[in-house]
Amino acid sequence: MIMMLPFLTASLAIWLALQGKRRSCLWLWLITLAIYAAWCQYHMTDALPISL
Question: Measured between alpha carbons, how far is 2 from 24 in angstroms, rounded to an integer?
Answer without folding.
Answer: 22
